[in-house]
Specification:
Layout (H helix, E strand, L loop, with lengths): L1 H10 L4 H20 L1 H17 L1 H8 L4 H33 L4 H17 L7 H7 L2 H35 L3 H4 L1 H6 L1 H38 L5 H11 L5 H18 L1 H31 L3 H15 L1 H20 L6 H6 L2 H8 L1
Helix pairs in contact: 3-5, 3-8, 3-16, 4-5, 5-8, 5-12, 6-13, 11-12, 11-14, 11-16, 12-13, 13-14, 15-16
Length: 357
């Protein structure tokens, strides 16, 4: 009798006043996180970087490196990972700014022809004089002047990220020691957190593979079209693949403008359409399925969580959406027997077959 009562208590879904209180508390928590996005976003990104580079500590210790050297290796690896990604984007954009003036006359002529073609189709476009004026250095400087003030919070967030990254890198070497109490008091939570860390690494591995693929395909396309520095734009596209939505436009803009300046509007359209198709197939459709199987989330949940966390944390939330969702699912769903039934609703089909086999 007691066994059946125990089973019923486990299977009973949360409801009534307790369920309502939990729902309200979750809503308030989301709103608080949204207000503190400037703090939560860099903290989560720093933690994600440390999760990626933490194996460096184990490798260095296995090679006989002293403890302080191994700890320093984690911090240096974290800074190196972020620095290399930012350096690729900065160098590529600098090269674009350096190269585009060489094709400025062709760009102006191509823009004028493009405007004329669009005008024949009945579309309202700027005049040739306005297009030439828009390419003046003064106009570009004025645009940069309007862009700089919004970059101040971004710079502050970057400083916060680099600071937290150093502290997390040092303390990450003590995670096993700090987790002993949790392993004893909440063994299921401890196990699911370990699973979440492994799932996050699988997610980043799958994302990286598809980033390399799309970068290689873009390089082949641009080289075949005779676009200068095609490998650089391929690397830029691969790096920008980690930045949803905005990253695609950053990666496409330099080669598209160079195509316009070298070969005219049709070449630019080819680059834009090819980038759109490749981005949709290689970085959206295919990865969604592979990421879904790798991290145990259904494809629908994966897409919804990207939109949700982008709303909560801004553009950074789109990058962190899947890792955050993996951790939330592990702690609030998988580790709680009372709501494990929710896991079947949000897990991938492959995970369901594994669990119920």
């Amino acid at each position: 009798m007691s066994g059946r009562a125990s089973a019923e208590s486990v299977e009973r879904a949360p409801g009534g006043p307790a369920g309502l209180v939990a729902l309200v508390a979750a809503g308030i928590g989301v709103l608080v996180v949204r207000e503190l996005a400037w703090l939560v976003g860099p903290l989560v990104l720093a933690a994600l970087v440390i999760v990626v580079v933490h194996p460096v500590h184990r490798w260095l210790r296995a090679l006989g490196a002293p403890g302080p050297v191994a700890v320093g290796g984690v911090v240096v690896a974290g800074y190196g990972l972020l620095g290399s990604l930012l350096a690729v984007v900065a160098y590529a954009l600098w090269r674009a700014v350096e190269m585009l003036p060489e094709y400025l006359p062709q760009l102006r002529a191509s823009l004028t022809d493009l405007a004329g073609s669009l005008g024949e189709l009945g579309m309202e476009v700027p005049s040739a004089a306005e297009l030439r004026e828009g390419l003046d250095v003064a106009g570009v400087l004025a645009w940069l002047g309007r862009l700089l003030p919004p970059l101040v919070p971004t710079a502050a967030a970057l400083v916060l990220l680099l600071t937290v990254l150093a502290f997390l890198g040092v303390e990450s070497t003590q995670w096993a020691l700090r987790g002993r109490g949790l392993a004893v008091a909440r063994p299921r939570v401890y196990a699911e957190l370990g699973s979440a860390v492994r799932g996050t690494r699988r997610f980043l591995l799958v994302t990286s593979v598809f980033a390399v693929v799309v970068g290689a395909l873009d390089t082949v396309l641009l080289a075949a079209m005779g676009i200068p520095a095609a490998p650089l734009w391929g690397v830029l596209a691969a790096v920008c693949n980690f930045v949803p939505y905005l990253g695609f436009w950053i990666g496409m803009a330099p080669p598209a403008l160079l195509a316009l300046g070298l070969h005219g509007g049709r070449a630019m359209v080819v680059v834009v359409v090819a980038y759109l198709v490749l981005n949709f197939l290689v970085t959206s459709v295919l990865p969604t399925k592979f990421v879904s199987d790798a991290v145990g989330l259904s494809m629908t949940v994966e897409v919804v969580c990207i939109v949700f966390w982008a709303w909560v944390l801004g553009p950074l939330g789109a990058i962190l959406a899947v890792p955050i969702t993996i951790v939330v699912k592990a702690v609030l769903v998988d580790a709680d027997v009372g709501v494990r039934w929710l896991s079947d609703l949000v897990s991938s089909s492959r995970s369901l077959r594994h669990v119920h086999s």
